């Protein structure tokens, strides 16, 4: 499909006619191998269809021609994307001898982004655009308002149903794309409103001064939300750090062009320990960073070291701040726009353009030097925080060495409370982290000793959201878990040394058990994210009830299942149904614990995963951080949706 490829230009000089549409190759491969063009054909690939169409509208906005973008979700999951840009050209294309609109919609790699002066920078997930959406839709319609006329064309699975035709007059300009994803390609077609909402909000932050709306018409009550941010990245950083206490009174912000690279950076420091670092290239999220992030980090480290030395905070090179020292508590967004960006990997997770590093490093370095001189109070707070981090890093190294150095490990071997399994193959070995000695005893007796290890924890572990690593490693329970896993921690962490490929959190089905599980999840999320990313962390699902009627017994895992089972068992005559509610794992004997929670043939395990790192990070800050206000607001907002609360 031809993508409406675009590049930024001034409002006065931008040509955008049929001659600006460049054709590179045909469309047929898309339906044969859709995964090559949208990554997957599951829910992620389905939503990429929207991103590709919206990208074209965003490109018009980035070029200064569009001010309003609307995404509508209709019943049966039909999508409509409308903008008030210039409208896709409709005159005959010189190379294809077809309308430029048809060329854009039905030819792969055709569009204004491949040459000419219609756009200087552009986005687009894989550079394939709206033609791929056309190919993967059972039906699509394009409506263009341009040159006083309303032009339309419809398509079925990438093929036009008729030639582009004029059906009326238009006073305004713009493009509307309507499409139905093809069920032959996508097994499940169900758009996630939150996923679309979050993506559009992100794009609105990155494209300041543009209004982006989402309308969901699938429910009884219409959902509407509009985004408009004059502050751009400043608004974005404020949003990302809204649940944290800012260290600075004045946020850092710079937006400047350097050698044809448009660099925009905003950041603030908070009192937190975590780093929130987002990067974008041509409005495309780069989760693995790249050259633009490297340039920012270099400028930040060098500038803060230079300032600290000049002001007498650092007196010798041994006390130089490292990259980790200057980034603790940082909330930053780095956005670059450049022509022909080079991405690493099909999903554009990392920016490889060297000129982006030079531009960001130069722009941030110059602006940050001025910022530190101008806002001396903020500069002092930042440097003091960095020096505190430096001190904590040295203390953490000492604590880590104490726990993990070879001699200590040889002395401790493994934690005394750990009942290890006999297998040394991590692929088949499982570690059950169990709440309390009582449940630990039952688990040790009921387990498969060859593949299942048991580590009982006494009481509630430290809330690591509020503690540095040196304090954390003093905690005996955490230290035991670190040693048992075998991976070490922080910069010494090595996922290849993980001794168990299933780490199962097994806690009681009550408030205390939920709290302990949350503390453990916080520990893994903050200090062992690779364990989660590797798919090694699980949560056990012990039964809530046992229903007994005569000789018939059933284990029940939720209230809905209990009500259904009671009705079924009541139909037969005989003894009264006895309902036992399990409050703790210790109430089960070893055989019951094995049968219900540990036996691979019967048990239910939930794998822990992270779908949205930004949202997850904010939620941990709210629920586990120091600030009471945001947590109180969260509880009040979600109180009515709470289920199974133990009192």
Outline of this structure?
The protein is an alpha+beta fold. The protein has 20 helices and 26 strands. Strands 2, 3, 5, 6, 7, 8, 9, 10 and 11 form a 9-stranded mixed β-sheet that branches. Strands 12-13-16-14-15 form a 5-stranded mixed β-sheet, sandwiched between helices. The chain has a 5-stranded mixed β-sheet with strand order 20-19-21-22-26, sandwiched between helices.
Describe this structure in words.
- By secondary structure, the chain is of the alpha+beta class.
- The protein has 3 domains: 18-227, Histidine kinase-like ATPase, C-terminal domain (Heat Shock Protein 90), CATH 3.30.565.10; 233-396, Ribosomal Protein S5, domain 2 (2-Layer Sandwich); 406-542, 3-Layer(aba) Sandwich (Rossmann fold).
- The chain has 20 helices and 26 strands.
- Strands 2, 3, 5, 6, 7, 8, 9, 10 and 11 form a 9-stranded mixed β-sheet that branches. A 5-stranded mixed β-sheet has the order 12-13-16-14-15, with helices on both faces. A 5-stranded mixed β-sheet has the order 20-19-21-22-26, sandwiched between helices.
- Strand 6 (149-156) and strand 7 form a beta hairpin.
- It starts with 21 loop residues before the first strand and ends in a 9-residue tail after the last helix.
- 43% of the residues are buried.
- Mean pLDDT is 84; it is low at 1-12 and 406-412.
């Amino acid at each position: 499909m031809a993508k409406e490829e675009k590049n930024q230009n001034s409002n006065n000089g931008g040509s955008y006619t049929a001659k600006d549409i460049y054709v590179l190759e045909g469309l047929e491969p898309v339906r044969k191998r859709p995964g090559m063009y949208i990554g997957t054909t599951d829910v992620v690939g389905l939503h990429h269809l929207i991103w590709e169409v919206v990208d074209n509208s965003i490109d018009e906005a980035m070029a200064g021609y569009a001010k309003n973008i609307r995404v509508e979700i209709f019943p049966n999951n039909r999508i409509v994307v409308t903008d008030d840009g210039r409208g896709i050209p409709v005159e005959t294309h010189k190379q294809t001898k077809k309308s430029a609109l048809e060329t854009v919609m039905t030819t792969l790699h055709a569009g204004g982004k491949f040459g000419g002066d219609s756009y200087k920078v552009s986005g687009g997930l894989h550079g394939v655009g709206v033609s791929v959406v056309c190919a993967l839709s059972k039906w699509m319609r394009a409506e263009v308002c341009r040159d006083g006329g309303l032009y339309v064309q419809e398509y079925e699975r990438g093929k036009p149903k008729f030639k582009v035709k004029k059906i009326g007059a238009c006073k305004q300009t713009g493009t509307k794309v309507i499409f139905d994803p093809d069920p032959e390609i996508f097994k499940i077609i169900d758009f996630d409103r939150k996923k679309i909402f979050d993506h559009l909000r992100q794009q609105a932050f990155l494209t300041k001064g543009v209004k982006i709306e989402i309308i969901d018409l699938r429910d009884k009550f219409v959902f509407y939300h509009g985004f408009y941010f004059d502050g751009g990245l400043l608004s974005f950083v404020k949003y990302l750090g809204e649940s944290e206490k800012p260290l600075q009174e004045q946020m850092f912000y710079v937006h400047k062009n350097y050698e044809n690279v448009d660099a925009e950076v905003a950041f603030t420091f908070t009192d937190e320990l975590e780093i929130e670092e987002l990067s974008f290239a041509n409005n495309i999220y780069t989760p693995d960073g790249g050259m633009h992030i490297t340039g920012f980090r270099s400028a930040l480290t060098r500038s803060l070291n230079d300032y600290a030395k000049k002001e007498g905070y650092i007196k010798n090179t041994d006390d130089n701040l490292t990259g980790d020292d200057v980034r603790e508590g940082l909330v930053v967004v780095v956005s670059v726009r450049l022509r022909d960006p080079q991405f690493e990997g099909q999903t554009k997770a990392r920016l490889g353009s060297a000129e982006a590093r030079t531009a960001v490093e130069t722009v941030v370095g110059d602006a940050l030097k001025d910022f530190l001189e101008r806002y001396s109070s903020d500069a002092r707070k930042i440097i003091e925080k960095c020096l505190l981090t430096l001190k904590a890093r040295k203390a953490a190294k000492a604590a880590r060495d104490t726990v993990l150095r070879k001699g200590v490990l040889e002395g401790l071997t493994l934690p005394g409370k750990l009942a290890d399994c006999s297998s040394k193959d991590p692929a088949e070995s499982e570690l059950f982290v169990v709440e309390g000695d009582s449940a630990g005893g039952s688990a040790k007796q009921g387990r498969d000793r060859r593949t299942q290890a048991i580590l009982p924890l006494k009481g509630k572990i430290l809330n690591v959201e509020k503690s540095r690593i040196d304090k954390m490693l003093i905690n005996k329970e955490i230290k035991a878990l670190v040693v048992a896993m075998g991976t070490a921690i922080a910069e010494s962490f090595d996922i290849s040394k993980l001794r168990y490929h299933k780490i199962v959190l097994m806690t009681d089905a009550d408030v205390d058990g939920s709290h302990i599980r949350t503390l453990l999840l916080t520990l893994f999320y903050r200090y062992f994210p690779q364990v989660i990313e590797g798919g090694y962390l699980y949560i056990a699902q012990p039964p809530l009830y046992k229903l007994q009627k005569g000789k018939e017994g059933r284990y029940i895992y939720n209230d809905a299942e209990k009500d259904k089972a009671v009705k079924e068992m009541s139909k037969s005559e005989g003894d009264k149904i006895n309902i036992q509610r399990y409050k703790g794992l210790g109430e089960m004997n070893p055989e019951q614990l094995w049968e219900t929670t540990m036996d691979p043939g019967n048990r239910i395990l939930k794998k822990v995963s992270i779908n949205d790192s930004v949202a997850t990070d904010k939620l941990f800050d709210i629920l586990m951080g120091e600030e009471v206000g945001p947590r109180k607001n969260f509880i009040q907002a979600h109180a009515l949706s709470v289920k199974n609360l133990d009192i």
